[in-house]
Amino acid sequence: MEIPYTVAERPDTGLNNVKLGIWLFLASEVMLFGGLFSTYVLLRVGATEWPVGSTLLNVPIGAFNTAVLIASSVTMVMAYASLKLDDFSKYKTYMGVTILLSLTFLAVKSYEYWEKIATDHLPSHSTFLAIYWTMTALHGLHIIGGVVVNSYFWGPGSAMWRTKPEQFVNRIEAAGLYWHFVDLVWIFLFPVLYLL
Amino acid sequence: MSGSVEEVKQHIAVYMKVAGALFVLTILTVAVSYLPTAVPLAVVIALIIATTKGSLVASFFMHLIGERKAICWTLLLTTVFWVFLMFLPLLGHVDSIGVPKTLPNANAPAEAEAH
What we know:
The complex is a heterodimer.
Chain A: H1 17-46, H2 53-56, H3 59-84, H4 88-118, H5 127-154, H6 160-163, H7 165-195
Helix pairs in contact in A: 1-5, 1-7, 3-4, 3-7, 4-5, 5-7
Chain B: H1 5-33, H2 39-61, H3 69-94, H4 108-114
Helix pairs in contact in B: 1-2
């Protein structure tokens, strides 16, 4: 049985199911991270003292990771545009660079975590570090999920381009929307945790 | 994103401009954090810059500009719930249920009898 509306638009929503599905998923993700940001506000407002993030966290490393994630968003959208231009080899290049940039982000984040563990700055150390570890680790898990999906679409999943190109483009668009959302979350996490 | 080659190339040009703006705003975020400003003002500035960056990503990379109404309404509903979620801590602070209250003249008769 073929899944309906993977390419064609549904008459009631004007959208294919791929796009509607990913946007509904992202809406639930907004609430997931929203809950944590709300928790951050509650903890910070209720705390008698709260450290400035830059005194505990490495701002240049955080800023570098922000730039890396923005660059990966650019290469992701370029991968999608390459498919729209019917240029599969460019798609492979851009998607490959996106994956490499994602791995760079994870490597830098791992170094930061290792540094924190080495200096005993664990979640049990303070409320600030508890919320820092929770939010960045959840974000990191989303990055890992994105790397897995993007690697599949770069490798074995890309075979669909030869058989069902339109459906493949829709899949890359959905993967791209997820990736940009992950970037968007970091855009807020960085100043909130590192700078304020 | 629509399909014609010319339109896609126009989109790519926009992506590059947005990317440049995002990198500049990231530098600005870090630079502003080093200014000797009060915490409330620093929070406002940082959130304004972050919101600008987030809007650029959502509008252009996620193609929310020109997206179908079904998506826009879904996101609008999400935003309403998100705003409510962000104000929950405030409700917690103004909540006085469980906090014992003493009336100003609650012990007045007892004191009068004692005298």
